[in-house]
């Protein structure tokens, strides 16, 4: 009997996979550089924090962070501390902020690795203070304020109970209270009255913290949409995520090209099968699609195990046709249900598509292929989720094609 040696398996299934997410690092560099220039033209001192949570929105944490830094990002942001540590261990020396923690987290490890820590409740302040004493090095802390999103962070009503222990720990040298920050509920609707209200509340929180004795280094509020649409909230740092990867955070206002962004990810697969089916034949589970004529169907070997949304299926109520697919010069749609590993397209009787041809699910619409936003519409979600949920098992292939 033998047992497998995990060390032998350094390229798991990479060479045997039927599809891939091709990530253009030049696009990420371009997008960050574009936002940096835009921000700089309004506010010369403002820095860019590239938000790389969720494995850089599915694009790959390390590679995307490197490209973002090359584009001019001087900070990284992650929700999970594990991703912050992964970046530091990979050798990045930029500032890194991490912001979603639960009691029991080993803050000492973050302090040792020089990672900025967001606190959003009293338990976190005392845990960070204790960890900093243990390490013997001051922790750098950003206070998350809930200015109206109604999610993580402290409301103005609870601000004082956070400021007292924070300032005390600052004054004893246990921590550096470096930042105040918040997040918008409606950044993609700059005219929404909550945007102005949140910006006002943010100003009050800063004033209150400074009056209490905070020596703040950075105040930050803007995500992608605010970075692209609302220079009045740039402050010292902006935190774009989605737009780093070239997708529009406000599709109702403009697509990626409108904002000068270049989508970085192309999701593609090689056609496994092309075969004839007669008219009136049901296709895929529960026959939501029926062929209208004698035709040829193609099998595209990616499915919901790869993060392909089953909600992007062609269901009978939408004529059996779902999300768009580009195969050579043919634009087709998913026919019938998306399965775990595959779905079907109706190529028509006269198709020239053969097994091995590349099916592009989404990429840069400026090149004539569907975009992640088209998939978001088909699946009833947002482009954030389309790219972030591309399965971990799908190989990421990195290219570096300078945009023209
Ligand atoms: C995800 C996130 C961002 C980035 O948001 P985008 O809309 O992708 O730009 C910024 N700040 C916080 C707190 C976040 O959670």
From TrEMBL:
Residues the record lists as binding substrate: 151, 340
Swiss-Prot/TrEMBL catalytic activity: L-alanine = D-alanine
Coiled-coil segments: none
Pathway: Amino-acid biosynthesis; D-alanine biosynthesis; D-alanine from L-alanine: step 1/1
Molecular function via GO: alanine racemase activity
Keywords noted in UniProt: Isomerase, Pyridoxal phosphate
Entry similarity comment: Belongs to the alanine racemase family.
UniProt-listed HAMAP family: Ala_racemase
The protein's name in its UniProt record: Alanine racemase
Taxonomic lineage: Bacteria, Bacillati, Actinomycetota, Actinomycetes, Micrococcales
The encoding gene: alr
């Amino acid at each position: 009997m033998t047992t497998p040696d995990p060390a032998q398996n350094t390229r798991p299934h990479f060479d045997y996979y039927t599809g891939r997410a091709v990530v253009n690092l030049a696009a990420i560099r371009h997008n960050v550089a574009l936002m940096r220039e835009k921000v700089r033209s309004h506010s010369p001192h403002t820095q860019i924090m590239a938000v790389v949570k969720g494995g850089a929105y599915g694009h790959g944490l390390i590679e995307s962070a490197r490209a973002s830094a090359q584009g001019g990002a001087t900070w990284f942001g992650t929700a999970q501390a594990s991703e912050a540590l992964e970046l530091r261990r990979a050798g990045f020396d930029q500032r890194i902020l991490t912001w979603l923690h639960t009691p029991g987290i080993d803050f000492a490890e973050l302090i040792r690795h020089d990672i900025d820590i967001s606190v959003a409740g009293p338990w976190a302040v005392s845990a960070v203070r204790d960890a900093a004493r243990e390490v013997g090095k001051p922790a750098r802390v950003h206070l998350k304020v809930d200015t109206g999103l109604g999610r993580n962070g402290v409301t103005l009503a609870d601000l004082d109970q956070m400021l007292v222990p924070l300032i005390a720990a600052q004054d004893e040298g246990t921590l550096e209270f470096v930042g105040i920050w918040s997040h918008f509920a409606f950044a993609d609707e700059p005219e929404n009255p909550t945007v102005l209200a949140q910006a006002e509340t943010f100003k009050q929180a800063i004033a209150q913290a400074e009056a209490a004795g905070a020596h703040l280094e950075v105040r930050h509020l803007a995500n992608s949409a605010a970075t692209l649409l609302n220079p009045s909230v740039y402050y010292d740092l902006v935190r774009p995520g989605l737009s780093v990867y070239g997708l529009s955070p406000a599709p109702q206002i403009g697509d990626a090209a409108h904002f000068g962004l270049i989508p970085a990810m192309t999701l593609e697969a090689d056609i496994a099968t092309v075969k004839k089916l007669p008219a009136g034949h049901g296709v895929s589970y529960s026959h939501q699609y029926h062929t209208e004529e004698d035709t040829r169907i193609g099998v595209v070997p990616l499915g919901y195990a790869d993060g392909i949304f089953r909600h992007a299926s062609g269901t009978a109520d939408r004529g059996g046709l779902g999300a768009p697919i580009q195969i050579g010069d043919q634009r087709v749609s998913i026919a019938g249900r998306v399965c775990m590993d595959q779905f079907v397209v109706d190529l028509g009787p006269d198709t020239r598509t053969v097994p091995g041809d590349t099916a592009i699910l989404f990429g840069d619409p400026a090149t004539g292929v569907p975009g992640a936003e088209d998939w978001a519409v088909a699946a009833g979600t947002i482009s954030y989720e389309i790219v972030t949920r591309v399965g971990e098992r799908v190989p990421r292939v990195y290219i570096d094609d300078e945009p023209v």
